[in-house]
Here is the input.
Amino acid sequence: MSKGLPKRSEDYSLWYNELVKKADLAENSAVRGCMVIKPYGYSIWEKMQAELDRMFKETGHTNAYFPLFIPKSYLSKEASHVEGFAKECAVVTHYRLKNAEDGSGVIVDPEAKLEEELIVRPTSETVIWSTYKNWIQSYRDLPLLVNQWANVVRWEMRTRLFLRTAEFLWQEGHTAHATAEEAKAETMQMMNVYAQFAEEFMALPVVRGRKSANERFAGADDTLCIEAMMQDGKALQAGTSHFLGQNFAKAFDVKFATKEGGLEYVWGTSWGVSTRLMGALIMAHSDDNGLVLPPKLAPIQVVIIPIYRKDEEFEAISEKANEIMAELRKAGISVKYDHRDTHKPGFKFAEYELKGVPLRIAIGPRDLENGTIEIARRDNLTKSQFELASQPIAEKIGGMLEEIQESIYSKAYKFREEKTTEVNSWEEFKEVLENKGGFVSAHWDGTPETEDKIKELTKATIRCIPLNRKEEAGTCVLTGKPSEGRVYFAKAY
Amino acid sequence: MSKGLPKRSEDYSLWYNELVKKADLAENSAVRGCMVIKPYGYSIWEKMQAELDRMFKETGHTNAYFPLFIPKSYLSKEASHVEGFAKECAVVTHYRLKNAEDGSGVIVDPEAKLEEELIVRPTSETVIWSTYKNWIQSYRDLPLLVNQWANVVRWEMRTRLFLRTAEFLWQEGHTAHATAEEAKAETMQMMNVYAQFAEEFMALPVVRGRKSANERFAGADDTLCIEAMMQDGKALQAGTSHFLGQNFAKAFDVKFATKEGGLEYVWGTSWGVSTRLMGALIMAHSDDNGLVLPPKLAPIQVVIIPIYRKDEEFEAISEKANEIMAELRKAGISVKYDHRDTHKPGFKFAEYELKGVPLRIAIGPRDLENGTIEIARRDNLTKSQFELASQPIAEKIGGMLEEIQESIYSKAYKFREEKTTEVNSWEEFKEVLENKGGFVSAHWDGTPETEDKIKELTKATIRCIPLNRKEEAGTCVLTGKPSEGRVYFAKAY
Here is the structure.
């Protein structure tokens, strides 16, 4: 199965593309830039969704659904917003097909032209704030804490499976508040929810930070983000949470009667993560043999493979396998018994390695005699014999899964730390970025012009101003002008 | 709250529209025909999704995701399919906006015209079968059992919230099989899954049947369906399951190597239910006071309302309420304690009636003294005193919720039976349809021409040929020609 998977060290980009396809996660469709998320890939996304959805609900949010289409005039109401999205909008102009009169086939009916063009949502601030205008009259209607799971479309020219696709799946939270402070606290809370999800479930350490003005969401006053480090030393923005100020409230005239009897514009936030997280998950942990999945997001946590020559051996092994499965399932562990007789054990081993199943149990006739099983860990490729009498199997496997979850996180954390370098001169900046990659922690004079210049010279952007950075006076690596603290630069996905 | 809800008997249609809005289920958006599903409405849809998704997985299906856009040429590959959907297709023709040179605002960039127009999926058979071509080579790849939760767009001219909207949410199952028999069995299985869901969770009795050729899905060889009866005597198609034969396999050249070494076209099915089910749920059970929700789909099953004048009464009541909530939650019952001091009990009673909460508990100072609570049932509007010492509260409430679920079903079943009439002449047919409505069970000569004629004369269509109909020779009510059995006619949503 893993035959033909390129090595990360030789061609990281090709390795990623091939892995996504060979592990049955996703593939390109006939429509440029739109992907098909295959069942195995989708089952990982479903696990992500379930955890995120739970976390949103625990923080008081409810789900709703808003239209796919946005009237062009709505998108245009917030100036910087339309500026940010205009270049990548899919536009619906007609609503009917008909048979061509010359018999050449089906054509767009020119008579069925829409009066106003509709934009396929690239994000839903405009359509949602136009709705909120009717939902919000008084302070009693606030806060309004709504999330939506949806597909969005951004007509990207260069696409890559999961990382950048014309259509992608995501959730977008849109909240409305009576005060700036509350909205800012919500923005921070949801960034922290994302960080917790990334670290606890994806085993992905992230830097919590703030975007520079250049990298801010189109229409936001402030954008918080979580940034992760991939194995090739490039950064990946894994989630963003925006403080929208009163920008959309003003664009859509959403005011509320205050407790004190006044009338004020509402404060807003929006926040989202997308199927891009799938790309982050794959690129952060996987290896040359295939996927490495953290147990908390693995659709199958344990696979059992029988090793036998004779039918009666198979029967005895199956009996043992069924016992083990029953114990594991009782403990909430997902397990599959792969007893296909059309494939050899070696083939199956490679297949589950490719698919990133955290633990593989092999049982042969000798194991039955000895009361043992062989357990192989996917993350570090180690094998061990386990004596069934020594400990309840569910306890053993449960413990190993926890260990793997932690171990994957630690490895990624260590890697990220190694790939984070403080530099103090422009020469050093370029040298580290060129030869080592990763996060380059450097002083910056705080101007968009310097940021642009650095991007032009090195392709690196400011990934974020870390929230936990020390106050530290310094001088900008490029201009030598004064700086209040270090920011993280990196080349990024 | 329920002020202004029209009576069903006076204007059923207006009653429905108002109820959907006032109970916070959905509303129209700025885009013609596209709705906003509000948080309360969406939370009911989420409960439906969860149960259906579980049932799909239990029958071996997995979820995946396919592109929103379909190249126009794909849609055209299956002749009757494009015929069926061409008139209601939203068409994407451009992929960019720009600022107008005359400063008049944002316009569609004429230079960003797509080479081939893209259709916003009205259903996904074409894009999915074009993908299946790559997934299916051999009998070993079959059956392929995939479902998708998605939004689809059909540019309907007359829309109504939930019942007929330009965009709606649904699931669409698409399966591929080695034999016609297997595909037919799948078609039947999924129709039965829908029927079970409708009856067990929605408390909605349905007729399992087969569509006549006229009403068949565009591209199917056979369409099975479940049909429900609304309170105004109109039928509602609640779910369909299609046997696609080899039509899409032929259109997209999907062949498989058989076990015997041959090469054959694959057999297909597709099946779906949508947010239309929300409309069915509302129209089947609700009354002039508002929603009536079956407990199994109610986002809140029990609401507790304190009745008090003094603060110390409120404290004592709250203590009791918290005790009861803890017990109910332990038993998996969802419960809300509405202790808002901004609204009076009477207002709250009306609000939860409007929202269809199955059980309402009221606790006052007298109740505390007597060790009682008042329990009100939403479905039949009865109230009773319950002595807390007489039975564990979770057992009592759990039992009542079950009773309500059954009672709502029985009522709808009885109504459906009353509204089902056998007729044996054209006069009788017209008379029943006109004055009584409901299902009219009549002999039909089996021709599309007669069906068309009847529709033209009465607006009634064949809802289905019931699967459990008796073999019964007769003569067509309209033409007098021979008939093999009765079919169900009705006016329908």
Notes: The mean pLDDT of chain B is 96. The two ends of chain B are 28 Å apart (CA to CA). Chain B has three domains: 12-75+120-285, 300-400, 420-490.
